[in-house]
Every structure is written in C-alpha cells, then in structure tokens.
Amino acid sequence: MSRQDQSPTPKERLSPAEWQLMRICWRLGRANVRQVLREDLKTHIRDYRTILTFMTRMANKGWLDVEKEGNTNYYIPAVEQSQALEEEIRQFLDHVVGPEPENREVLRKVLAELTSRDRQGR
50 near 37, Cβ under 8 Å? Predict the structure, then answer.
C-alpha cells in the first residue's frame, strides 16, 4: 500500500521553495531530480545540487517516497495534493486569521475576490 493511501500529512512543514517543488512532483507523479530541475527552470534559477538537496529533505520529512532504479532515485509524492493543501490552509487560518470576526471578514472578502477573478478567467 502506498503512503498516499494510508498516512496523514507529514508534521514537518515545507518551505516556500519546497512547496514549489512539491507542486512539480504532484504534476509529474514520479520523477527524478533532472526532470524536476527541467520543470523548475521554467520559473526559477536553481542548480541540480540545490534541487537534489530539497528533494532529499522533502523525502526525509515524509513528503516524498523514493524508488531506486539503477543509479537513479525516483521521487513519488507520499501525500495527496488536496490533503496537503487543505492541512496547510487550515494551519494558516488557525495561526494568522484566528477566530476574530473582523479577520474572518477580511478572509471572506479575499475569497470573494479570488472567486470573481476565477469566473472572469484571470
């Protein structure tokens, strides 16, 4: 059984750069460092060793599973994307927005703006 089928979101959180790479991993499904680097280079300037370091850390944190094939490691998301996003958003809301009604109103306003932009295709 894969980890995606059984485990909750890892407790150790991702950095912003790791989130960017995790989104690439979710999109690719199974990838080696070079494949992730090729995708990452479309928007960032990072080298192979930097991506390798990030991928190793993400695997150590429990976000990626590793399959060795010959001399190449392939990384597979260990957590469903929707599950991870939901947990991250909940933590953000708990820590930043909190229970205050005025903060919740700001959140509603931002969500309404995002929904409006989505409907307009932006």
Answer: no
Q: pLDDT tens-digit profile of 28-52?
A: 999 999 999 999 999 999 999 999 9
Rounded Cα distance between 44 and 22, Å, is: 14
Q: Are 42 and 116 in contact (CB under 8 A)?
A: no
Task: Report the domain count for the chain.
Answer: 2
Q: Residue 67: beta bridge partners?
A: 74
Instruction: Return the bridge partners of 72, or none.
Output: 69
Residue 7 maps to a domain: no
Range of the domain at 19: 13-79
User: Would you say residue 1 lies in a domain?
Assistant: no
How far apart CA 107 and CA 68 sit, in angstroms, is 44
Say what the pTM is.
Answer: 0.80
pLDDT tens string 41-99? 999 999 999 999 999 999 999 999 999 999 999 999 999 999 999 999 999 899 999 99
